[in-house]
Amino acid sequence: MEASNEDEECVEKAKEELSKLEQLIIQKNKDMPHDPFIFNEDSDTFWKEQVENRIRKFKRKQTRSMLYET
After folding, report:
1. pTM greater than the 0.85 cutoff
2. What is the DSSP code string of 18-70?
3. What is the pLDDT of residues 31-40, one digit of tens each?
């Protein structure tokens, strides 16, 4: 099954549109590095920091409550 010229043109246009979208996503990542809805390299470390902060806060609350109980 051969692809016609029209099909090849559609594929080329789709590839161009895809590359434009990829560039927009890269630019948005630079503008908003901690946007959780868009993949970026920093997202893993960002969420890891968030979890660690919550754990620290929880431990602090536990320690305070133990101090006030005695």
Report:
1. no
2. HHHHHHHHHHHHHH-TT-TTS--TTHHHHHHHHHHHHHHHHHHHHHHHHHHH-
3. 665 555 555 5
